[in-house]
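Handout, page 2. Input:
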Amino acid sequence: MRMPAGAFAERGADLELVGIQKRFPGFTAIENLDLTIPAGSFFALLGPSGCGKTTTLRLVAGLEEPTAGRILIGGADVTGQKPHQRPVNTVFQSYALFPHMSIIENVAFGLRRRRIPDPSGKAHEALRLVELDHLAQRKPQQLSGGQQQRVALARAIVNRPALLLLDEPLGALDLKLRRQMQLELKSIQEEVGLTFLHVTHDQEEAMTMADTVAVMNKGRIEQLGAPEQLYELPKTAFVANFLGQSNLFTGQVAGTTSEAISVDINGQPIIVALPRAHRHTGDVTIGVRPEKVSLHLDKPVTDAARNLVGPGRVIDVSFSGVSTQYLVAVPGVGTMVVFAQNMAFGPVAQEGTEVWLSWNIEHGFGLEDDPADVNAEAPKFPADTDTRSIAAQKRDALISELEEG
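Output:
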């Protein structure tokens, strides 16, 4: 039973980081970070280990002090404030519940310490929001991991913080429960209207829940935008390969029209729509996602709306249930990755099969990276097969999956 939205009517506050730097002895974790998170939004800070995302969260929470810069919440400068003085609560991966207290006592604990009126009533209200009020008298060890995570969330929300920080909160849950909690967290965020800042290295989690995702690398924001925008139109090689996989090619722009650029990849022309290319002259790096590429056993008829490369030869086939991954060696182009949905029984091509590859010109993209930088940093971006289905992971599909289970 969901609570009426009016029970948690207060909106969250916006968060602004201005010129944030954080240096530790021997290295710089964050270098001149500027970031604005609108009030009431679900914002994900996404990046690999060591990129600075957890340091950013700790700075916002007041657990670390910036070397330079300012932190503003709701327009108020909180840079010099202690953690307990800030309108911020944090939900950690470790739930940190008091084992000797009941669930209701855990949730009401902070209210009692701050001498807030009616702590028990407010705690029951928060537990109803996460649909656990019927377990209010149980101890934490009597609950499942997912239920304990909800209690930790209720305890964080009950104080009505302007900003809620989520530090890898679902990492300890199994896959199905994690997906269920992703949907519930998003639903709760929309209901209470708080500002959520979610720090994670899990691409799928960030893209499922967040309104806006900022991809962080080496202490700076590589790209910021809606999940669909980052996936469909990455600006850098890091984003293109951190959010799923990409086939990347580097070559010289051989021609430009009002609608597209043609890039010469070792004599093979590949067309990219002009609005989807960040660089239009000189050496450029272009790409296409593996699931956008079609695999053909016979050479298809030339189509002005599609790029065509080949013939190539299949050098690896990996069956994963929903889809099959093909690695195809194309002379002059390199090894391309193709994800094909399994519409028939088994793979349509085997190792050694000669194939052609094609994709819609509107599905390609051109990076703003200097190709020299892309090539120099290539070893940093290993293929991440765990994110191969990000593009297909829409919320309705996730709900259907949970219902079927």
